[in-house]
Amino acid sequence: MRDESTEISAALTETVPAGHKGAIRRENERRIREAAERVFSEHGFRGASMGMIAEEAGVPKPNVYYYFGSKEDLYRLVIESICDTWLEAAATFDDMSDPADAFRGYVGAKMDLARMRPEGSRLWAIEMARGAPFIQDYLCHTVKPWLDAREARIAKWVADGTLPPVPARALIYMIWAMTQYYADYDAQIRAMNDGAPLTPAQFDAARENVIALVLRALKLA
């Protein structure tokens, strides 16, 4: 006897032209991932349910299981995806020979992500505060090698004389803290801003200020 998710999949296969099935699947997956990011960031792993995610995404609950398997699988995918975008933001370290351009691009991209995906950043912070029980392997096998490579790149700039001596790991940690603050501590920022969120102009100014502070600290301004 077929389960409900299999029946939904079969119904889609029967009623949707073959050329459109892939597009429908991608759209449903996108909606579910974005909904999961919001629901998990608000309720945490234990407080969230697949039903809540389905309701937020506007899809039948069996579809969430059909596309993503279990709640744990979906949680891992969502939480790792936000860090993947942060790691990709550091492509400037590899693409640019000038450290000023590299840091300007990286810090700016991290600030943009704090603006575009605040729920994901807060979800990451929640997972870290709990001791990262779901993603220890991801931290060890993905984030740690990324950090080692960035440290090596910074060391090369120091050796070349294009960057003053700097504790590379402390620098990266500082950038993480400064940029992710604008997502993780949004409530505090609102309170300091007379109860209102930052306007686009205020956020643009904050972005440029953070970039300038980093460059000044590195004597690259």
Automatic annotation (TrEMBL):
Residues annotated to bind DNA: 49-68
Q: What would be an example GO MF term here?
A: DNA-binding transcription factor activity
Keyword DNA-binding assigned to the entry: answer is yes
- List GO BP terms, alphabetically: negative regulation of DNA-templated transcription
**Keywords of this entry:** DNA-binding
Starting at the broadest rank, the lineage of the source organism is:
Bacteria, Pseudomonadati, Pseudomonadota, Alphaproteobacteria, Kordiimonadales
From which organism does this entry originate?
Eilatimonas milleporae
Protein's name according to its UniProt entry: TetR family transcriptional regulator
Task: Tell me the superkingdom of the source.
Answer: Bacteria
Taken from the record, one Pfam family name reads TetR_C_3
Entry keyword annotation includes DNA-binding: yes
Q: Which residues form the HTH tetR-type domain?
A: 26-86
Query: What SUPFAM superfamilies has UniProt attached to this entry?
Result: Homeodomain-like, Tetracyclin repressor-like, C-terminal domain
